[in-house]
Structures are given as C-alpha cells and as structure tokens.
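Hi Y.,

Following your request, here is the sequence exactly as I used it, all 84 residues.
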Amino acid sequence: MNNFTKEYFKTGDYLNASLFDEKHPLIASSSSENLISTMFYACDASVQTGVISYGKLIINQQKSEERNKIHADFFDCVRRLANR
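Below is the corresponding structure, written out as tokens. Let me know if you'd prefer a different format.
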C-alpha cells in the first residue's frame, strides 16, 4: 500500500510477500486469470501460510517466530484487565 512506484521488484530492494497454500482447493482450482482475485477476495487467513517482510520470513506455517512472546504479553495484558 502507498507504493506508487511502477517498478515493484528492483535489484537490491527487500522483498515483501504473502505466501499462500497452493494446495487449498480454491487456490488449486483457480485459473491463472482468476488466481489473484481468488487469493485476495475468496480466501480467509487460513490459506495464508507465511509472510516475508523486508526480506525476512516473519510468519512461517502460520506461526510467528515471536509467538511465545506475543502469547505471554497477551496473557499478562488480559490478567491485568482482570475481566476473565
């Protein structure tokens, strides 16, 4: 978003990408013509298997490398709210 350049893949730039499960029925059965629309309009988050941000794989198989820290921080926050 907000990338108004006409050249998206320049040598030396970092790669940002969303990785999808190519075996998911909606993806696997889509024609090349409809694949991008299917990925963004017909699929939910379970079809996204990974995220590459600035050249680094930060989500792999739907799990963040920082998952344990995220869960611990969330648990602490919910405990401090004292509404559970």
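The first helix runs from residue 25 to 28.

Thanks again,
Q.
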